[in-house]
Write a structure and sequence with these properties.
Number of strands: 26
Distance between the termini: 47 Å
Largest sheet: 4 strands, antiparallel
Radius of gyration: 20 Å
CATH class: Mainly Beta
Strand order of the largest sheet: 5-4-3-26
CATH architecture: 7 Propeller
Helix content: under 10%
Shape: globular
CATH superfamily: YVTN repeat-like/Quinoprotein amine dehydrogenase
């Protein structure tokens, strides 16, 4: 594999202040990382079960257990860094059969605590068809992929939820599993059973409007993972049958990665290194280099995301929460 490591660089900007020339360093590009966020699921004999973990993906060692915002949570389905890697948003889908709650929580890496959380409504289906994905929107609201029914109606919705957990909008999308905010295009993408949907998002009304639909190449494939890449502006996308590169702006929308089906999670570093996983597997898997075995639990890896140091800007348009407009309702 071709690797191009992006090392820390700086340029000098000359400013004239009180007759003196002052050199001001530009923001540096972060070094590559070995750390990965993990949503730990179905590791019943492991003390870290249903917690959010940080591990070294290249050695298999556990670095830190971040715990969870409430003790009675189950189905740890999603975890993502945001706010220049200062915060983490995580989702537990819940399971009524096991008395487990569903929650969306926000973890602050600087204070090392879960700073907020809200419970997924009891009217949402849980278990295998629980909420599977979450992303933060620029106004502080959340977009959640609810895979199953709501109020015993429908079979999948993209749901906009306020910072306090109030449902603002729910848009039907059959068996939706993955949802992502695209800060460069300023849209939301979501993948369902047979298509990827593109939505405009209005931060004033906090509502989505569908603007495009891209049918999956094999039709009813059961879309799963959707994650923006970092060496271009395309996406990694997985289904029950295939793994793809999804190119929203190209004529050829889907490129088969020839990895087969059943891949639950994929994420890519700056240098192009892609980490991926099967559910109920004990390996960090990579394209282009050897797998690495976990050294802390059996099959904990439902969702994994590369994690950079606090303050690192990993997309050109990334902003700190302090740079964004005030969150609605706060």
């Amino acid at each position: 594999m071709h690797c191009r490591h992006l090392l820390t660089t700086s340029v000098l900007i000359t400013a004239l202040i009180f007759g003196l020339r002052v050199a001001v360093p530009a923001e540096a590009t972060p070094l590559e990382t070995e750390q990965m966020l993990i949503a730990n699921q179905y590791a019943a004999d492991c003390p870290h079960n249903h917690n959010i973990l940080i591990a070294n993906a290249l050695t298999g060692e556990l670095i830190e257990d971040l715990g969870r915002p409430h003790p009675s949570l189950g189905n740890t389905n999603e975890v993502k860094p945001y706010d220049l890697n200062r915060r983490i948003v995580a989702l537990w889908g819940g399971s009524k059969d096991y008395g487990q709650k569903g929650v969306v929580g926000v973890y602050d890496r600087e204070s090392k605590r879960w700073e907020s959380h809200w419970f997924i409504p009891d009217t949402w289906e849980t278990g295998a068809k629980s909420a599977h994905s979450v992303c933060m929107l620029p106004d502080g609201h959340f977009a959640v992929a609810q895979t199953g029914s709501i109020d015993q109606q429908g079979d999948g919705f993209v749901v906009i939820v306020s910072p306090q957990g109030t449902v603002v909008q729910q848009v039907p999308l059959a068996s939706v599993h993955g949802v992502e905010w695209d800060g460069q295009r300023k849209v939301v993408f979501a993948v369902g059973y047979s298509a990827v949907k593109r939505y405009d998002y209005d931060p004033q009304s906090h509502k989505l409007t569908e603007t495009a639909s891209y049918g999956l190449p094999l039709g009813g494939e059961g879309g799963h993972e959707l994650r923006r890449r970092r060496d271009d502006n395309d996406y990694l996308l997985t289904t029950n049958k295939r793994a793809y590169i999804f190119r929203p702006d190209k004529a050829e929308k889907f490129e088969d990665l020839k990895l087969g089906g059943g891949i639950k999670c994929m994420d890519q570093r700056f240098d192009g290194l892609i980490a991926w996983s099967y559910i109920w597997d004990d390996q960090f898997r990579f394209i282009g280099q050897a797998n690495v075995s976990y050294k802390f639990c059996h099959h904990p890896y439902k969702s994994g995301r590369w994690l950079w140091p606090i303050g690192a800007r990993v997309y050109p348009e990334d902003q700190a929460v302090s740079e964004l407009p005030p969150k609605s309702g706060r």
